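QA checklist item 7 of 12: single-chain prediction sanity check.
[x] sequence parsed
[x] length recorded as 70
[x] structure emitted
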Amino acid sequence: MVVLGLGRSKRLEAGDVLIELLGDPEVDGHAVKALGKLKTPRARAGLERMKSDSRLWVRRAAESALRKLV
């Protein structure tokens, strides 16, 4: 829940924290969802990587987040 809450943050550092959390298998899917809410352009590479995750919901969240970056 804390990770998802970062998606509502107004602080610039929230995007950086979420990008780092893409490397943590415990919370990476939630970080993807939060990045989609923040629309953080610098997260593009990490979100692209998450499109090949083994979990369908994470892949869909990554695709959705990437569409929001356009």
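[x] summary fact logged: The helical segments are 2-6, 13-21, 28-38, 44-50, 56-68.
[ ] second reviewer sign-off
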